[in-house]
């Protein structure tokens, strides 16, 4: 039994959680970079459509992130408190609800892709391409939903290697299919952006099947087909209590980014394309930092469930000591070599000039993002999700989005003003989250609960010992 517990503890160590997440995230970044590079061979307009569409998909994903994210934290907490059966039930409930939401979104995107793109101010000349891409990739939104909840559930059991290996296979296949469809090689027809969309959906379908197989065996008792009819109202409520603020928080960020992309569309195709290329490059900066932040969320949720509040409190500071230097170094490397990398994607001098300026601003942006990722995830892990939601609603919309429109569009300072607005938002929320974590609010509540439980058990034991035996 002791060896089993030791193995489980090692499974939830920061390093064991973080390195597979990093490899998975790096491969996802590589997928995006190669995807953008390959699509750029079609046209810069195609790149703009892919970037815009991905922002739309990310925005819609927040509708099922409420359940998936909340369930992930509850699963880690339940496993930490040795309630494996409840963790299993939470995972099943989350899968069913998330798949239903994903199916609903798929139907909407298949029916009205052009209308949605036009409503979000996509330039008219890009609408035909957007209609095709959004209808195909968006039609597979149910696969995206299932992948999200399956990966989250599997990771929060301590198995971060499963999603990593799935990502490896998905990335390799996606690159091969992209190459075939874009250039008409490997016996595949030359379909351009349509082929890229088909490639994306095929890879997600296969990845979903693999993740589902891993998911069925991720708990002490294997999940069988008949178990998918299980529903527990109390556990679903636990998911929503933690999950709905997470969903609102995530929605606030993604929809604010979508609004900012709309502002860039107003500025012009050059600005929109530059931002799409910068999204690809920026991902390089915080890959390891984000992996550490996600790993520490799982670790802290597990420690919190086990009642180890002191260890949970100090975990986030260890992550920041490692993550901040990594992010800064990566951002500085981009400043040095970013222009050369950009020339792999485009030769448009206007786009290259814009990106050169944005790379310097990125050096200022990334440390703020790292602090938000680490401390924000830690607050979420202990259930303080309403606080992160509240500051997101206020500052993302007033500072990041509002100031982006005011200074970037209204006053005409352009994309530089939009970046400065986003930077200000990251640092404000980072500082507020830091002071909130230092207060240890949720950790103190947990400590008080544990103290009451110990006192109750002590009184119960005393009563048992002091009760006279019945006369024979």
TrEMBL record:
<dbReference type="GO" id="GO:0005886">
    <property type="term" value="C:plasma membrane"/>
</dbReference>
<feature type="transmembrane region" description="Helical">
    <location>
        <begin position="89"/>
        <end position="112"/>
    </location>
</feature>
<keyword id="KW-0813">Transport</keyword>
<dbReference type="GO" id="GO:0015297">
    <property type="term" value="F:antiporter activity"/>
</dbReference>
<feature type="transmembrane region" description="Helical">
    <location>
        <begin position="166"/>
        <end position="184"/>
    </location>
</feature>
<feature type="transmembrane region" description="Helical">
    <location>
        <begin position="394"/>
        <end position="420"/>
    </location>
</feature>
<dbReference type="InterPro" id="IPR002528">
    <property type="entry name" value="MATE_fam"/>
</dbReference>
<keyword id="KW-1003">Cell membrane</keyword>
<feature type="transmembrane region" description="Helical">
    <location>
        <begin position="286"/>
        <end position="307"/>
    </location>
</feature>
<dbReference type="GO" id="GO:0042910">
    <property type="term" value="F:xenobiotic transmembrane transporter activity"/>
</dbReference>
<keyword id="KW-1133">Transmembrane helix</keyword>
<feature type="transmembrane region" description="Helical">
    <location>
        <begin position="12"/>
        <end position="31"/>
    </location>
</feature>
<dbReference type="Pfam" id="PF01554">
    <property type="entry name" value="MatE"/>
</dbReference>
<dbReference type="InterPro" id="IPR047135">
    <property type="entry name" value="YsiQ"/>
</dbReference>
<dbReference type="InterPro" id="IPR048279">
    <property type="entry name" value="MdtK-like"/>
</dbReference>
<protein>
    <submittedName>
        <fullName>Transporter YisQ</fullName>
    </submittedName>
</protein>
<feature type="transmembrane region" description="Helical">
    <location>
        <begin position="132"/>
        <end position="154"/>
    </location>
</feature>
<keyword id="KW-0472">Membrane</keyword>
<feature type="transmembrane region" description="Helical">
    <location>
        <begin position="319"/>
        <end position="338"/>
    </location>
</feature>
<feature type="transmembrane region" description="Helical">
    <location>
        <begin position="196"/>
        <end position="220"/>
    </location>
</feature>
<feature type="transmembrane region" description="Helical">
    <location>
        <begin position="56"/>
        <end position="77"/>
    </location>
</feature>
<keyword id="KW-0812">Transmembrane</keyword>
